[in-house]
Amino acid sequence: MPWTRHTGLPFMKMHGLGNDFAVIDGREGATVDAGLARAMGDRHRGVGFDQLALIGARGDDLTLRFWNADGSTAGACGNATRCVAAWEMARRGVDAIVLHTERGALRAVRDGGAVSVNMGAPLLDWTDVPLSEPCDTLHLPIAGDPVATGMGNPHCTFFVADAEAAYMGYLNAVAEAHPLFPERTNVQVASLTAPDRLRVKVWERGVGPTLASGSSSCAVAVAAARRGLTGRAVRIDLDGGTLTIDWRDDGVWMAGPTAHVFDGVWHG
Predict the structure, then answer these.
(1) Cβ pair 26, 32 in contact under 8 A
(2) Is 128 within the bounds of a domain?
(3) Could you list the residue range(s) of the whole structural domain that residue 92 is in?
(4) What does the pLDDT look like over 98-144, one tens digit per residue?
């Protein structure tokens, strides 16, 4: 039902490796707009989060829509998808569920303490990322020779010797508003630490630095495999923890822990 400041708006706070979200169950009529996302996303005056997720229904499946903390929309949010999937699977007492996002129908499964989601096939053509002009997405004409990947949102990945040391320099070289990315972009700086392991620092479009990012981790894994740096199954070490990524024939699978931190009521 519609909410008011008097009745309040119920929400859940969740995170995947510190990549945190407010989740609103809209199956009874609650709605979200950019103003609400900005107000709730303020870490000093609101709830604070990287993204806000709104749950809806499509038959027995769920739908998910995402907003960034600055009020802009996001087509994909892998860790939020896993968090909501974990909560709904526990609520239903099942080990698999389908969630519909702008990426399409995403299958999630629970295996012990980890929740995996298939984030779909990566988008590798410049028109699909999207980019503003024809480019080889494996070698963008940007200093640092980054890779572009679409995972329902655009990504720009730099491979360097030391991600910790190089992060700010490469971030400043492209930021999220480079003209080659008409919808802005998420930025990752990655370094290979083992044949199947990468250390990654992330700047999220509409958010800023973040402890973890599911779609960014998928993009890095795809970019590393395309460059021949790794195979298709890798571990991604982020500031908030580690995700396992496996680029299979049916899509890019991502696995890791989830947390339901608390339930609250927003009075705005």
Answers:
(1) yes
(2) no
(3) 9-119+256-266
(4) 999 998 999 999 988 889 999 999 999 999 999 999 999 999 999 89
